[in-house]
Amino acid sequence: MSQIDYETFYNKVGKENGWDFSSLQLMSEGVKWEFYDEVTKRVKKTDLLLDIGTGGGENLLKIASSLQLLIGIDLSKGMMETAEKNLHNSNVSNVRFAQMSSNSLQFPEGFFDVVSCNHAPFDSREVSRVLKSEGLFLTQQVSEADKINIKEAFGRGQSFGEEDGSLKEKYIRELEEAGFSDIQSFDYDATNYFQKPEDLIFLLTHTPIIPYFGEEKTDFDKLNRFIGENQTNDGIRTNSKRFMILAKK
């Protein structure tokens, strides 16, 4: 299969895991920020926040005390089922979840003070529409050169072969066209060390980094070769490349 069915994939992952990778034993060097920390630095207690592509809602529940109301949306039914379970098991009362496409946000114009989006697609015009005047949009996305040595080892992967920085330029251009005037972008390329092969297998199974990982007969041979070539005293080495965009309406 040359193109992954993302909706089916995320429904499956949502029911199994939500978007919780806290069990991974992973060491990182060079990470410049944590996305939801950056969100909380820029919000007020009275703000209303929309989180696009919220997954299992774990991050939203962690920052709930920083805002008045938080609404997380995701296209995946599986993710939303996990998010509702996480909400039910929490002591949080100011978070809501809804299954919804980011291309058609079912909210009034100018409803939110802040919109966040972590590793999910978004529609710049829809974001602008639901944001108040002077409202803030923050997004973190995966760069094309993320996990590049893994993709090279497998000869395939998410955004493999695409020019690094293309997605960031596309989003900045679309945000400008949607009426955002103050746009800033930031990047980092961190080194990751997975402590065990099982940690790396968990990541590849629960993300689309290598589409349909494990379904090709040679996948585990390629993985074993990759581990042998990238094993260090600190763990199995790869990279995590991210960019963040801050845009004020």
UniProtKB/TrEMBL annotation:
<protein>
    <submittedName>
        <fullName>Class I SAM-dependent methyltransferase</fullName>
    </submittedName>
</protein>
<dbReference type="InterPro" id="IPR052939">
    <property type="entry name" value="23S_rRNA_MeTrnsfrase_RlmA"/>
</dbReference>
<feature type="domain" description="Methyltransferase">
    <location>
        <begin position="50"/>
        <end position="135"/>
    </location>
</feature>
<dbReference type="GO" id="GO:0008168">
    <property type="term" value="F:methyltransferase activity"/>
</dbReference>
<dbReference type="GO" id="GO:0032259">
    <property type="term" value="P:methylation"/>
</dbReference>
<dbReference type="InterPro" id="IPR029063">
    <property type="entry name" value="SAM-dependent_MTases_sf"/>
</dbReference>
<keyword id="KW-0808">Transferase</keyword>
<dbReference type="InterPro" id="IPR041698">
    <property type="entry name" value="Methyltransf_25"/>
</dbReference>
<keyword id="KW-0489">Methyltransferase</keyword>
<dbReference type="Pfam" id="PF13649">
    <property type="entry name" value="Methyltransf_25"/>
</dbReference>
